[in-house]
Amino acid sequence: MGTAAPIPDVIGTPQRVRESNGHLIDRIDHPVDRINASGETAVVVGEMHADMTAGGARKTLVNRSVAIWAHDRDRWLLPAYQPTVLSKGDIR
């Protein structure tokens, strides 16, 4: 394996971005606590906060998250993502 490209900011801060699954995202905050990279793989630990509309219902996401990113053929793939819902007392 060669040297992987820098991990992209795939979350960004889009304004009302329509995803392929039909969700309408109004706001995303993705604070990252740490990134552990080895070769062509990176583990990103942080949180995911979002306001969105899914199936016509307004939702707010407040999660801790772990994402596994793999670099393959000049692109980053997301083979695994684990969100864990935070309680109100855990929100930073």
**Low-pLDDT windows of residues:** 11-16
- CA-to-CA gap between the ends? 38 Å
Helix content: under 10%
* Cα-atom radius of gyration: 15 Å
Task: Report the structural category.
Answer: mainly beta
Describe the structure.
Helices cover 0% and strands 61% of the residues. It is built from no helices and 6 strands. Strands 1, 2, 3, 4, 5 and 6 form a 6-stranded antiparallel beta sheet that branches. It is flat, with a radius of gyration of 15 Å. The chain is mainly beta and 92 residues long.
Topology:
Layout: E1 17-18, E2 24-29, E3 32-38, E4 41-54, E5 57-72, E6 75-85
Antiparallel strand pairs: 1-2, 2-4, 3-4, 4-5, 5-6
Notable characteristics:
92 residues; mainly beta; 6-stranded antiparallel sheet; flat
Summarize the structure.
By secondary structure, the protein is mostly beta strands. The chain is built from no helices and six strands. Strand 1 and strand 2 (24-29) form a beta hairpin.
